[in-house]
Structure formats: structure tokens, C-alpha cells
């Protein structure tokens, strides 16, 4: 590995002074760039929008400058990350959060954006592959003041020193890893490691699956990759948008600061319950029900449920039109239904054809009854009469009622809601299913939508379609009206021009009509959509994203994968997760199996992360034993640091358990930093009560925020999060109560960055024998 060059104190001071001067200069440039961007922004706003094109240019220029100002603002904290000294290059290259131009446009920039290709060696150069770098310097700052510099000399001599994992910028990395947690994830641009950098900069095409154990930086890497892709494909992703999917709202608030701190604000973050615009599905249900709803077989169930709504019944239907009784036999209606199904594979779009076919039938019968020429049996009505009659029949209330009954217009909510609340409908839609599975599908309590319902509603959208012909016709009418009004305005202006001009002057007078035609005047008056790409995407169900990032992807069901691929048909995705942490029954056991049905075998590639940056080695040793006992196929990641503090265990009597847990939580809270108490679900209420008696502000549930107070969570809620101290309660119950008990225990054990205390009433699982009794 590379070495940190030993420096005497005076040398250190000189280096600090050198970097202070450089950093001060870069901050001056940041200020100047910001001022310039604000000036250009104001200038853009002042641009006269004389036609739609100018209006568009003005909006584009203003939005470009807004983005630049946001990025420059975000770079204020920790602007400069470090510098590279390169072979045969007299000037060092400074690396930072944003790029800043130099005075001489022909040379290196004054500061290179961390995402630019020139920055890459800062993360990847090693003594064995120095990439032209002789020294890498990490610069740490507090405010605008340089607080430390750490050098690595990339020489082969240095390469033989040390035997730990090859780390980039070890001192800066260790400082970041041992820092107290704030309850919010922070960015890692200053200390990205080589294996992480390779993933961050990997090609945007196809599905990149990142498998890594707890604490290997999957979330961090996924978010930095999002920032990298936005930088590299700014224009394309600026238009199509980037979606980040996380498991829960708590997790999303935990990661919410990272992209803005990297200057990226236009990304849509959504939990699994928020993937349908306009819906925040927070209902709960049993893991078994969620698993059934997540199966791909639900596509067939929903298809059958739609067909079940096109049922014609067995008897003859009688209608009375203008006093004339008309009978429709099942065979007649079957023909009409075939016409509807042929017209569209989507239920709502097939309905007009069904309605027309019914109207045709009724008209035919009606004409047969009233128009028959008694002499020759031919109809007395001509074609025009018959057409007029057909339109009337279509609008006849009796016909409309029949069509509504036999082929109702359906919303996805109606289709899925009616299905899940009717045992009969479920039975009819689930051929060959067991009664147990059918019973799981039946919603017996409450009406709240759950995250597992979201893909069903989206699938229903596809099956039902949305008949927007009326809206399109209204929009066309609106546009015609606006053009006509604009033309009137122009005519009026033309009519009112001055009439006392001499003949030869008349030709020189410009009228509004010479500058604008009715179409562009109407367009100028049309409302401009000022929403950002992310806002527009959030409101539009048919939006397709340029890239999708999925975190904790091991939890996704087959139906959710289907939904995501529909949202990102190009399959440009970054998918990060850990098969050893799968907690849901519908989740993945193998990436290939999970991805095959929706993504396809040829469209994904695997990358792995192997180093754990969160959990100290002492805790990880215990967690690794649990991983092995659970029969996981993946190896435990190697911890990058140890604290010298062993994780502890304490056995207490059942009756004293909640009280003792509360005391331990309070002791750990006294040490500072964030604290979580992780409990099996059956102990949640009692533990929360007890913890609140010691720590009244303690929080629990989906909105628990460890920034404010200690939190009490079940393992599933703790997924993806981390805390300085963790109290784990009754691990035997965690194993017994989880549908994947070993995964839950593994997750719970790997949340701590510093201290872990296990408190239990009975025996400990054998795998936890590495814990030290207190
Ligand atoms: N290169 C790095 N420099 C500094 N900190 C890092 C680095 N990589 C990861 N970390 C830190 O390690 C911790 C764990 O990272 P992260 O939460 O991304 O891991 P994960 O693989 O998603 O974990 P889990 O599977 O448990 O969700 C975070 O605090 C993160 O900031």
C-alpha cells in the first residue's frame, strides 16, 4: 500500500500554509463564479421573450444558471478535496466538489470536478498503477480553513509497507469513519475507494447490480453514481430524470441530504409505497400476503379479474327503445364482446367498440321491427336514417345502462379494490390456486393500500388503459379556440392602425400581424410549465426515467421489478443490495432469479463490494458467525477498522428486561451520538414504554428520526440505517419472529458504527457466543 509520508511539525505547518493559500484562492474563485452566475441569471430573466423560441431560450438559460448557482452553493462546504502531483507536470491539480475554470483557458482548470475524468487517479492510483501520479494529498477543511493535509507517496517502496486492505487516503478515510453519526447520511466524495469508484463510473447502459455486505457503501456508491451520471449525461438525464427507489420513507429521509450536498437537486426519491403518482401507500399486511401479491402470477390474476368484469350472463336481455321491445340473446352479446376485445387489449379502450357493437345490434333489431317494408321485407329506412338512429340508440339510457353493466369503465383502484375484498371474485380469478393462497389475498381489515398493492394498481393501469379521447378532443377544441382568439386580436390590431399616414409611409408601418402569426401568438399566451423534471415525473404515471437507482433491491418482489422496468424501458439501472439481508418473503435469494423475468439474463452485470466501512471488526466477527449459521451464499465483508471495544451481552430476568434495556440505552445515549434499540416485533410496545420512561423523547415507527432522540425499531425498520450505539434485545426472539430470522439478526447486528450491547432474557443463540458478558 501507499505510505503516508512522515512530516515534522514545521514541515506540516509550511504545507498547511501552502494549502491555505491555494484553498483561499479557490474560494475566491468560487465567490466570483457565483456572482457571475447570479449576474447571468438576472440577465437571462431580463431577456425579452418576443416569441416562443425566445421564451424557450430564456427559460433554458435561467434554468442552467439556477443549476450552476445550486451546485456552487452546495460546494461551499468542503470545496477542495485534495490535489494530485503528477510526473513531469510542474503544477499540482486540485480536485474539488465542482469544477472552476482557470484564468488561462488553455491549461488545467483551477479546480477539477471530482466526477471529471481527470479526477479519476485521485481515487484509483496505486503505487503499482500510479497513473502518472507521484503524490496524492487529501486536504481537510473546516469552513474555509485548512485543518489537515495527508499525503500518500505513490512509490513502489511505499507499496511494500503495511498489510491491511489497500485504502486510498487512509487518514482522511479513518477520520470520516470514526466521526460521530448525525442521523443523516453524508457524502463520501473526499474518500471514495477504488472498488467503489469503478462502480460509480461504470457505463450507464444496462442493469448494474452491486452486491455487497452491510456497511460496504452500497447506498453511498449508488448515490454518488447518480451524481456522476447526472454530471456525465447532464442533458439526457436533465430531460428524462433520475429516480432513486428506497425501501421506506425513513430510509429516504436518511439519505435525502446526500445528492443536494453534491449539488444535485433534480432527483426523485420514492419509497416502494410511493411508486404510483398521487398515492402514498403506507398500509401494513402480513409478510405472507405481501409475498403472494408480489408473485408474477398476479399478472394472470388481474387479467382474469378484468375478463370477469366483461361477463354477459346466461339469459336473454330485454330492452325497451321508444316503446319497442328488443331482445338480445347471449350469442349476440358474445359477438359484441368479441368486437370489444378485438378493438383493444385494454378494457377501457375496448369499451367504445363494445358499446358500438351493442348499438349496432339494437339498431338492427329496431329497424327490423319498425322499418320493415311489409311488401318486400326490405327496410324502408335509408342509410342516413339508420346512422342517425344508431347515434340515438348509443345515447339511449337503457343501452347505456346495459353497456355499463356488461362492460363497466373501471379505474385501477376499483378493479384491484373490488378483487381484494371479494372472496368470490378472487376465486374466479385464481384458477389452480390453493385456498390458503386465496385467503391470503382477501383483504379483511381496513382499506389502506399497502406497498405490495402499488405494482398491482400499476398493472391494472396497463390492463385497463385510459380512454382519453374525450380529453384529447377537448384539448384540440381549446387549441382551435385559442388560435381563433389570437387571430381576432391580430385582426383587431390591424384594423386599428393609424389611418392618417401618407400612402408612401404606410408600407413602413409594422403591425403585430407582420411579426406574429396567430399560431405563435396563441403559443405565447399558453401557460408555460415551470415544474422541474423531477416534479413533472412525480405527477405523471406514464413517465419513463433515463436512469433508475434501486437501494435495498434484495427486498423487491417480481411485480415490483416489472413496474420498475416499465418505468425505465431502456433498463439503464443501478441496483444495489445484499442477498444475505433479504427480509421479505417476496425478496431475492439470487440476483439472476429475481431479474430474469423482467430484466432478462442478457441485460445485467454484477459488481461486488467487499470492505465494510461501518461495522468495527469486533462486531463483524459475531455477525459473520450468524451469517454462516443462516446458510448464506455470500461471504461477510472485511471490516476496515477495529475499535478495541468488544460487543457485550447481558442476561436479565424476563420481568426486568424492558427496564434494563432502557438503562443501557440511556447509558449509551450519555456517551453521545445516535442510539437505536432494535427489538423483535413482540417486544416493541413494552420496550418503547420503558425506554421512554428513561428517555422521554424516544421515537418509534416509520417516522422515527435518530437525529433528535434514541429510536426503537424492529429489524426491518433498521435496514440500511446506522447508529453510533445499538442495543439489541432478545436475539432468540428476533430469530424466531422474522420470516427470515437469520437475515433479521444479521441486519440488527451490523447497524452499529461503535458500540453494541445485547440484552436478553433467556439463552443466547449459539452463534452469538463471541459476545463478551458484562
Ligand atoms: N469511501 C468511503 N469513505 C467514507 N465513508 C464511507 C465510504 N464508504 C462507505 N462509507 C460509510 O460507511 C457507512 C456504510 O455505508 P452504506 O450505508 O452506504 O453501506 P451499505 O452497503 O448500504 O450498508 P447496508 O447494507 O447495511 O445498507 C456509511 O456511513 C458511509 O458513509
Automatic annotation (TrEMBL):
GO BP terms, alphabetized: recombinational repair
Gene Ontology molecular functions: 3'-5' DNA helicase activity; ATP binding; DNA binding; hydrolase activity
Gene3D superfamilies in UniProt: P-loop containing nucleotide triphosphate hydrolases (3.40.50.300)
Residues annotated as domain UvrD-like helicase ATP-binding: 191-616
Region (Disordered): 474-514
Keywords: ATP-binding, Helicase, Hydrolase, Nucleotide-binding
Protein name: AAA family ATPase
Organism: Modestobacter muralis
